[in-house]
Write a structure and sequence with these properties.
Layout (H helix, E strand, L loop, with lengths): L1 H27 L10 E8 L10 E4 L2 E12 L4 E9 L9 E6 L6 E6 L12 E2 L1 E3 L4 H18 L2
Parallel strand pairs: 1-7, 2-6, 5-8
Antiparallel strand pairs: 1-4, 2-3, 3-4, 5-6
Length: 156
């Protein structure tokens, strides 16, 4: 009898450990917030997406309104073509803008949507034309160093 009780507790502990591993895997893969709500897709183009990844959140006013569905490179315009999957219950004007933002100083990147003032809303297949690319820390540092080097040459 005692052996069966011990086996039961060990089995429950193993199941709990497996559930914890699944939870951590979903959290690490940014899949923990799966939504089965109906969505519509819109596309955007960025000159530089930085570290943006598929399944990254799309936020407006700090609220997750969708996810990045796909990222591809357009070899005709030499830009990144980003497909956004927005939840159908969130409507945005056609003249909305999209920016690539960072959570914290070195956190994950996400897309921030700023609503415009148009009376018509985005529909499936539309394109957000006004975009702002990611701020790349390495580019900022190199610009700073270049400007300091230029100041040093002027002083000679």
């Amino acid at each position: 009898m005692q052996r069966k009780s011990l086996d039961l507790w060990v089995g429950m502990f193993v199941l709990l450990g497996a559930a914890a591993l699944v939870f951590l895997a979903l959290k690490a893969g940014n899949m923990s917030s799966l939504s089965f709500a109906p969505t519509y897709t819109v596309t955007t183009r960025f000159d530089n997406i930085g570290g943006l990844k598929p399944r990254a959140p799309v936020k407006s006013a700090g609220v997750v309104v969708g996810r990045v569905a796909d990222i591809r490179f357009d070899d005709k315009t030499y830009q990144a073509l980003v497909t956004l999957s927005l939840e159908s219950n969130y409507k945005f004007p056609k003249d909305s803008s999209a920016k690539i933002l960072t959570s914290g100083l070195l956190g994950e990147q996400y897309i921030g949507l700023e609503p415009g003032g148009d009376t018509n809303n985005l529909a499936a297949g539309d394109r957000i034309k006004m975009t702002q690319s990611a701020v790349v820390l390495e580019n900022l540092i190199s610009q700073f160093l270049y400007s300091k080097a230029a100041e040093g040459k002027e002083g000679e």
